[in-house]
Dynein heavy chain ATP-binding dynein motor region domain-containing protein (Strombidium inclinatum), 111 residues
Amino acid sequence: DFGESIDPLIDQIVSKQAFVEDGEQRIHWGSRAVTFNEGFRFFLATKLANPHYMPEVFIKTLVINFTVTFDGLEEQLLADVVANLEPEVELQRDRLVQEIQRIQNEQYSLQ
């Protein structure tokens, strides 16, 4: 569980302060130098409902808010119910949403 600040040990990974030693990319992990793979991904999650992170956290990481709102959940459930009961109506809705998006994009490009 990730709080509102980054632990200094984790910060060494998040900052990706890699260096080359013996032909391998490495990072400092505590007092040791460990091999670092460019494909390595590190995910942090929090149970905090509304965390307030310092600017340096946003600079070093990609923060994604997966909070589910009541309105969003209601819209998704309604779409699922309509898709099950009236699939043609849901297909028409999808086409209309795509058409609206296309028109808005065209309108934006003409401005």
